[in-house]
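Notebook entry, structure prediction.
Reason for the run: the old model in the group folder had no record of what sequence produced it. Starting over properly, with the input documented here first.
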Amino acid sequence: MKVSKKVAGVEYAIRDIVSAARDIEQQGESVDYLNIGDPVQFGYQPPENVKQALIDAVNKGNNFYTQSEGLPELLDAIAQKENSKGLSIGPENILVTNGVSEGLDMVISSIVEEGDEVLLPGPYYPPYASYVRLHGGKPIEFAVDFKNSRPDIDDIKGKISSKTVAICLISPNNPTGLVFDENSLKQIIDIANEHSLYLICDEIYDKIVFDQEFTGIGKVAGNSPVIILNGFSKVHLMSGWRVGYIAFNDSPQLDSIRENLPKLARVRISTNLPVQYAALESLQGPQDYIGKFVAELKIHRDYVIKRLNAMNNITCSNPQGAFYAFPKIIDNKFGSDKNFVLELLKQKGVLTVHGSGFGTQYGSGHFRIVYLPNMEILESAMNKIEDFVR
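New structure, fully documented this time:
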């Protein structure tokens, strides 16, 4: 039977590479998994009060379809959170989704027609390109200065065409951990306004920053056509519960999408109601666990970056946020970054992700490491990688 080309061509390197690791395990070998950015899989759990909120919601009978836009109390709490970062919006500008990925799909499907172009930071999180292609568009990568953690403004300007409909930002970034500063955000806002482009900003790692304060796009948005994507998987340790949201800036340029995108929410009925109560508690309850989580991640980051930069044929910029490192391979004897990753897995049992899976233009020649595992696993993995590149 026929399968559409647009679906058959979908790739997701982070999970696609796992099949190779399973083959290794079936041979009786162990694997150090450094491929997926899921804190919960590495032992971090939602706080007890958040778990209890989920259980209480189920026990109280809140197991029905709720309104498609989201639980009203949660919409209020999310609006308050985004306003604390710089926006000035009400709950009517929020839509709760089944994770950020669903929100991204909804936004892209709402703005992209056949042949439209969307600018993505190179390298980018793979679903951005996948959804753009799925809806008939073309992803265009723009350059980012790894050393100074800044977008290449001239490159962005040079890649805007009559077909461009949006610029996407991911800050803190997956896979690089780069965090854009306020000046960079202002410059991109100016470009979006000049060319009447949507500015889609993924801020799911907004509280996982190490060496500076995070500046959200809301601080400089004004009345620009900014759409924020965020969720509860990373900071709030609720990855398997799948809850995120879309936040629309209060801009007249967004009136049409604000009116029409919720139709997609109605078609899929609603987001899991008990989980929305847990998300509400995660915003309103104690927040001290986030600081402890980030402090531990900073120790992991410092260790991993120090080890990587001491290795032969490896160099790595210092990530300012999230929980990823994106080392560059120098003098790669295996030909491609994917071959490097597969050989590392085969010879040493360490699973990472090939950089070209995050965009071939700027991701090739790199690989991505997650530094969520405990220090014992990280030390073992670093020793194996060091031996591999020696």
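Summary: The chain has 16 helices and 16 strands.
The old model has been moved to the deprecated folder.
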